[in-house]
Amino acid sequence: MHDARALIDMGAEAVRRLARRGYTLDLAALENLQSRRNQNIRSADELRAESKRVASEVQQTAKAGGDISKLKERARELKDEIREIEAGQEQVQEELRDLLLSIPNLPADEAPDGDSDADAVEVRRVGTPPAFSFEPKDHVDLGEATGILDFARATKLSGPRFAVTRGAGAALERALATLFLDLHTRRHGYVEHAVPYLVTRRTMTGTGQLPKFEEDLFKTGVADRELFLIPTAEVPLTNLYADEIVPPAELPLALTAQTPCFRSEAGSYGRDTRGLIRQHQFSKVEMVRIVDPAEARAELEQMVGHAEACLKELGLAYRVVMLAAGDTGFSAQLTYDIEVWIPSQNTYREISSVSDFGTFQARRANIRTRDENGKPKLVATLNGSGLPIGRTLAALLEQCQQEDGSLVLPEVLVPYLGFRRIAADGTPEA
Description:
The chain has 430 residues and is α+β, with helices and mostly antiparallel strands. 40% of the residues lie in helices and 21% in strands.
């Protein structure tokens, strides 16, 4: 969310920067609402001051035995005028808030021009994609052949875009999540949290999922209580500190959690409908950092490294790209995508997005710290996947497959699994 005054002061520069992400800022409408809001505030203040003066005159005149009828009539008129002004002020304030909530974050200048993944700029490649002497299978065929993935029964239970893992597959999911949490808590300094999976509308608004992305969310309710299923642990983790002032000495805050994530994927039908790439429910380990704004860009680079460490531990080939301004998420200033190699598609596919939101989410959620003079100021927030379990499982199965249909897993997983190889019939083997 933006400070209206800051956008107005930026003027044409704000229009230019938002245009880079395909958003047309109606500066005149913003200025009009801000002006009406300010005028209403001034008028209400003037009427309250007059009301106070009239009330004082009523007391003084009554004590002196004078006629107070006209003064009392004026006092009643003022109360009506103040109520009318306050109602108008509330309406204008709501219109201004709705407009500000709809305006995306200003993209960073270093984000490349463009509006699609084709415009992303590659930063680096790590690892060599495996070369096979046979035609590699995709993770769906591998998982179903070994019996560790069952899409048909998942569809029977819940419809399309759900998956069931079983046996060694379920154990592998659990091992990946534990490995990632161990890396982030023991090596990277994050504090693990267990958070609610159902949150309020205000919580969703704080991180920018609402109001823009309501159609992409699952929601439920009992009686008059409305709750949303989280699309990512970013939502509850960031909002843990909503309406709080975090002492500067406690920054940066580094938070992590493994949660299920629920997404309707509205508008994405026909894309990645096969397999684990785009599911309605999936498990993910998330990283969130709450920092001083001056440190945000350095913290972003560090967080990208934390996500990369997960892939390096597994020995998976991947690359890092910087997203174009027009392809950057609504709340983000700058985003790096980490893309893992998917052999069956002969390409890299996104497995983690790591973003710097600046003070955008902090303003919406009212998360602050204090400056060197002790005055409250907004923090900066960052988040990134570290990593999604389903997509990691898909990449792992495909990069680790053998010609006979078996899977040889990375050594780092053996302490978590108790086995390294999954035979072609799904049997775990040491």
